Known about the structure:
Elements: E1 6-12, E2 26-27, E3 30-31, H1 32-41, E4 48-53, H2 56-64, E5 69-71, H3 79-90, E6 97-100, H4 110-118, E7 127-133, H5 137-141, E8 147-150, E9 156-160, E10 177-186, H6 187-194, H7 200-205, H8 210-214, E11 220-223, H9 234-247
Parallel strand pairs: 1-4, 1-6, 4-5, 7-11
Antiparallel strand pairs: 2-3, 6-10, 7-10, 8-9
Helix pairs in contact: 3-6
Amino acid sequence: xxxxxxxxxxxxxxxxxxxxxxxxxxxxxxxxxxxxxxxxxxxxxxxxxxxxxxxxxxxxxxxxxxxxxxxxxxxxxxxxxxxxxxxxxxxxxxxxxxxxxxxxxxxxxxxxxxxxxxxxxxxxxxxxxxxxxxxxxxxxxxxxxxxxxxxxxxxxxxxxxxxxxxxxxxxxxxxxxxxxxxxxxxxxxxxxxxxxxxxxxxxxxxxxxxxxxxxxxxxxxxxxxxxxxxxxxxxxxxxxxxxxxxxxx
Length: 249
């Protein structure tokens, strides 16, 4: 058993081209950011949970439900860059593990976060994430749902908004996987990663994790049997709300 501390950081910004104010969107009576924070904060192996934001409205919201929030710069290109600022603020050690839990995954489950931790806890890997099997053609073809393919050792080959792999036969003969947009990193790797320039693939797909692959590093990907959805649009928020109401009956 390693001695690494596990710190969860939830990046949350107010401005979003597709869904402004998304972290504060009310979902079954609570702001979306609160659903995510409370799930993460209740996990035994996580030492501390923080929301990293550049907006006073989000900071005040988190503090209103007794959560911990860190005010960061507004200049960051991505959530990962925002998290990197927190490394210095929190004085984290190089072998500590940071969990990047997206604030737009309100249906995230404890089991998924435990699976995420297992991708790099007590292993030689320095970055990990999850995938979930896609069961509908609509989701495969939806560019708001990021797909991932992996090699035989469960390392990521590519992430795309397009259906991957392309299927020349019957689409039912191929397994497709949604990328669950949460990550685990060792601190020393995250500091290295954020100093790499944005890559061509990253800019093309608007997917920051492609910078890792394009620079020759590996991302361990574990399949989860749990179900979750990322919320990027009002329609997805309503879907998440329906799922919550269904599961609470």
